[in-house]
Amino acid sequence: MTDLRDHAEAIAEQFSDHLEPSPDVDEIEAKLDNLVTDYRVPIEEARRSVTNSYLEEAGLERDELGRGGSERVDVNEIDDDEQWVDLRVTVVDLWEPRSDAVAQVGLLGDESGTIKFTAFETSDLPLLEEDQAYELSNVVSDEYEGRYSVKLNRTTSITGIDADIEVGDNAETVEGALVDVQSGSGLIKRCPEEDCTRVLQNGRCSEHGKVEGEFDLRIKAVLDDGTDVHEIIFDREATEDLTGVTLEEAKQEAMDALDTTVVADGMAADVLGRYYRVTGPTLGRYVLVNDLEEPGPVDVEQALINARSI
Q1: I need a labelling partner for 272 at 20 to 30 A (CA). Which of 67, 109, 211, 251 fits?
Q2: Is the dihedral of CA 46, 139, 233, 104 positive or negative?
Q3: What is the pLDDT of residues 105-114, one digit of tens each?
Q4: β-bridge partners, 108
């Protein structure tokens, strides 16, 4: 229950300057406990649900709400959706925005690696300059297909600094037998709301509620090299390359069977037990697959036995 209490105190702190009287910590904890214990809702989804109820009560948009006490992190430490953090980074690259709603989009970097950022016109922030170093306070993380990015919002503080920040590479290469295809693989649906890419659970987005989702493909898998296990994610493009199954084909297969789970089952049957070497950025506990190799014929069972005997 301590964990729930910590979440309740954090939510109360967020709204302490926006609601009168301030939300009661005991009441917030009871709401969280009801969702987590009675309805088996994951704690992060429960927290978003309770936060959304207070946002509505306060008449606020999410990007108007900071999270008190955000901590300084390296970009490769961002491994969850809706983390409120401070960064010390340099602007590696700026791209042409694809939407009039976006003021800037590009790539930030520090010694640990790089991460995409987006700033929206409505946030009314000063523009970042390429190759300039900044301290960014109160930015919020976002996730899409296992890739994490950060959004600059109305509460973000931007301070230019005189610093030479070396930008690192957070790519990693791992290999092993593919021993598990995890839940949440195959044909999935994502929230269609602007700038929201969350995977739907039972037709619901944890932030926007019940929505008509958009289909996507992914595989969340585990490689075992005999010594360590590595969790990896194939996004839509990598999944199509790996399996030879396109999104349209997967949708048709699910429609014919009246069951979306047949897609993941078929993919698992094709890839389980095969040996792969993958390279990509590390995103929390996952490696996002950018490059894939399948070495020559391998006796997977013998390879695992040999590796574990070292």
Answers
A1: 251
A2: positive
A3: 998 999 988 8
A4: 91, 115
